[in-house]
Design goal:
By secondary structure, the protein is mostly beta strands. The protein is built from 1 helix and 8 strands. It has one domain. The strands form 2 sheets. Strands 1, 4, 5, 6, 7 and 8 form a 6-stranded antiparallel beta sheet that branches.
């Protein structure tokens, strides 16, 4: 399955560049560190403040179908295409009024 055709997230959406480091502490009080991997990954937290129920159901179906798989997602602000996967085990939501939900989902670059 692919990313569903739904409205772009709210502009409260954020992201980060993730590049983990391995740190080893020694008895002498010094710390040795190195990158855990040779490349960074980008992560995004997408939020919708007022998503219609029909769009939520499309996103929920895509989340269930694609959890654990990678897919193509286009970042709405930049127009750049990324190969991503869901980085959390849940799709978070709350009702804001009848027929609308506040929704968030986390993606990470493959």
């Amino acid at each position: 399955m692919a990313w569903p055709t739904i409205p772009a997230p709210s502009f409260t959406t954020g992201g980060e560049v993730y590049l983990p480091v391995v740190r080893t502490e020694f008895e002498g009080g010094y710390v040795q560190s190195r990158k855990r991997s040779s490349r960074e990954r980008e992560r995004w937290l997408l939020r919708w403040n007022n998503m219609e129920e029909a769009h939520f159901q499309l996103l929920k179906a895509a989340f269930i179908a694609d959890q654990g798989n990678s897919f193509t997602w286009v970042e709405s602000v930049t127009g750049l295409s990324h190969t991503v996967k869901y980085s959390e085990d849940s799709l978070k939501w709350s009702h804001v009024e009848k027929g609308y939900r506040q929704v968030s989902v986390a993606l990470e670059e493959e």
